[in-house]
Request: fold
Amino acid sequence: MTNNGRKSANIKDVAALAGVSVATISRYLNGELDRMSKKTAENVRNAIEKLNYVPNSVARQMKTRSSKMIAVIVSNVDDYFSTELFKGISSILESSGYIGVLFDADSDDDREQRLLKTIGSQLFDGVIMQPANNPQTITEALRRSMPIVTVDREIDDSPWPQVVINNYEVARSVSHHFVQEGYSRVVVLTSEIKKARTRQERYRGITAEFKHVDVLEISEVVHNHQTTYQQLLHLIQKNDKKTVIFSLKERWFLEFVPQLVFDRVIDNKRVTATGFADTDYARRLEPRLKLISQNPYFMGASSAEVMLNQLQDKSQKAKRIVIRAKFE
Amino acid sequence: MTNNGRKSANIKDVAALAGVSVATISRYLNGELDRMSKKTAENVRNAIEKLNYVPNSVARQMKTRSSKMIAVIVSNVDDYFSTELFKGISSILESSGYIGVLFDADSDDDREQRLLKTIGSQLFDGVIMQPANNPQTITEALRRSMPIVTVDREIDDSPWPQVVINNYEVARSVSHHFVQEGYSRVVVLTSEIKKARTRQERYRGITAEFKHVDVLEISEVVHNHQTTYQQLLHLIQKNDKKTVIFSLKERWFLEFVPQLVFDRVIDNKRVTATGFADTDYARRLEPRLKLISQNPYFMGASSAEVMLNQLQDKSQKAKRIVIRAKFE
Reply:
């Protein structure tokens, strides 16, 4: 493209201006700077800048339809789960010459659609995402066919491969564990339950074991910390049953549980706390609390492996990979 | 490109296969789904998938040399500072029709170079980065001329605009504040100081006010929490001077200060703590500690504004914008 008569500069123009051979330019473009003098590299760089030359790799992409870039859409880059997921994805992609680039849906369905629209109009080779919208909305937003892998949030009868954790089972077995220990009531700390399938599954697992369930839903967009903390205290103290505070999201665990510990509300006797949490901060609280770890890095790595398979063989059937969360 | 005789499908092929007009296809591609029946949209989507058609916007990019995407490289996506920086950047870029895509240097200079190499060979319109490498290395890795804005880490005589905070001044005035309050010794909690200009500046500010300075450098790659905590305790207790623990990085503050509070080491009398910290968690500790907030969201927004100016007028001179950190 850049060398078929359009006015934009091509590699020959750069070579001419730099006063070196085309071979030298391509060595430079391949980063083989040890094969030329500092002065030559300097001249080449200046020529490229003067002519505002764009390497042919872009033209190559047009032919191969490949940029070696995979778009990764996470629900919120402020969540440790999301960034660890991305680090796991990147590690595997890069071992195969691909690179993961991160997009932030910022817990906003419309925003996810806008991002998909952009991604669909760019030369990304595939998309790995924590989906907020349903498959039809996602497909319509992308407006072209490309390999997709979803992770974390389960989609029923998904047209794409997905990597999820056993949300229902682990929430249920953890609840069972606390019921066995004599805890008869649970206070669930969560974002809006109906907005994410993951939360629904976890909530189902909890209600399958606990008879007395109180729920405190917190807005991810805006909430007043003190007000929410008072509501939480009120729920905990409204009767003297042995109570478990069960956080479905690490963000809420980190925001409220340390304060409950400091205020001596959590004693691991009358009141204890657990939840889905992957950071070290959550595990360093005293008294020690047993938590559910999902290993987002591993989930990311697994979804990247599935993506690489898709890229090699687009005819692959959609499969569902379940990662087992740990309670420890 | 996609319609100049190469074998790949063009918009006419899609229209033919879908049995609709080219106008309808372009409406579909522009997302104007309200202007066609669900059935038509369905047919178009299927035709696009069958022919694996890539919208012409890619071809348009080749002409305009614009993808409307800005690459953002942060030092570590696990740091709240980095993700807030990105959210600030995105908010401004998107108000002007650009989109920010995030790359993670993972605190690794070589990795930053690899990312720049990829970005240079792709159709990104510009780069906003927390630079780890020096300007020449960055330019050589990119291998083409594009607008660059650096943020957070200061570069002397930078060829590019940069947005930084007044690291030296704020570290010095905060140190002065504690000296006034009778604290005669400081223990600095930091990553390797010589690796980042930001830390050097902050350290300079501290040593300008404190005579007795102890430093605990922690590796970002790997460290043992308990061992490091014991070293920290040893430094604090090696004499009975009034001591300030001064963390140059929020990550270390969050890892060690809450434990010091829990262990009753920090009493705001003999021992207190401060540092650069932007999350709410850091501010919720009891006893309350005064902290330095950099407002990464605002820093990001500012760097995005500078980038937008660059995109409109590439001849702009490189300028240095200083954001004042708050101590509160």
Chain B is about 45% helix and 15% strand. Chain B touches chain A through 62 residues (CB under 8 Å). The CA atoms of residues 64 and 135 of chain B lie 27 Å apart.
